[in-house]
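Human: I wish I could look at a protein chain and see how it folds. This is the protein in question:
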Amino acid sequence: MAELGKTLHAWRDRVTPAEAGLPAGGRRRAPGLRREELALLAGLSVDYILRLEQGRSSAPSAQVLTALARALRLTDSERDHLFVLAGQTPPRPGAISTYIPPGVQRLIGQLEGAPICVCAASWTMISWNPLWSALIGDPSVFRGRERNIIWRHFMRPGIAGFDRVAQTPEQAAGFTRAMVTDLRAATARYPNDADLRDLIKELRTGSPHFAALWDDHVVGFHESNVKTINHPELGEMLLDCDVLTAPGSDLRLVIYTAAPDTEAAEKLRLLSVLGLQALS
């Protein structure tokens, strides 16, 4: 694991805080990320990053390696090399990828005034910016299936922290059809993805509504909508919601924006300053 540690350290040194969307934070001995910053970006502990770099940790999991590749903005080839150094098999083309290319990460960083969430082809949330957490609720408190938007919609409607988005009956029906269509398309592109098969099995078994839509082969597409967000501190906010597909990947970007010079735009600006801290 010594070579893995040296490589991680070298990659950490080449990523600047600005590139990662972080403040510079005073004087630095090197221009790259501090261990604390890499830990924050990857969702890992500082102690674990230290042990990895010192070669004192056991083989990291594929999930940890994917998080590190995302935080370090590695290319596909570098990500695969990271997996090899850690003794893991690089992600196969037949499996849904949770890797976010550097270009997409830069796009997210440049849209800091808009709440953004990035989802895999299965609609599992893999990244989000602080403004998304402040607006919708912090996804980091959830684990496993709870981070999958489709599973949550059919199996746990109104789950705490994610019940702020109000939809008209027409919007809800369109959203449901689009999600089922997306999931069916994912099965065609990734027929060998075991987790995707398990997800669909769970949904068909646990949700008669999903099973009926799946068996009826419904078709729907994502459309731009004006949605009402009921924020616990700022009240009602009317925001435009768009779902974009990242070029060259199956990643979905869900983005909320406000029309200029509106009350919602002012509330978003206030939210970007205050973040998750209590407004009371």
About this structure: The two ends are 49 Å apart (CA to CA). The chain has two domains: 2-85, 102-274.
